[in-house]
Amino acid sequence: MKNPFKAFDNFFINLINKQMRNPFFDFLFYHITNIGGAISLITITALLIFFGKGKYKVLGIKIAFALILSGIIVQILKRIFTRSRPYWILKNLNTYGIDLRDYSFPSGHSAASFAVAVIIALNFPKISIIVIVLALLIAISRIYLAVHYPTDVAAGIIIGIVSSLLVNYKLYPLINLYIKNKL
Question: Where in the cell is it found (predicted)?
Answer without folding.
Answer: Cell membrane
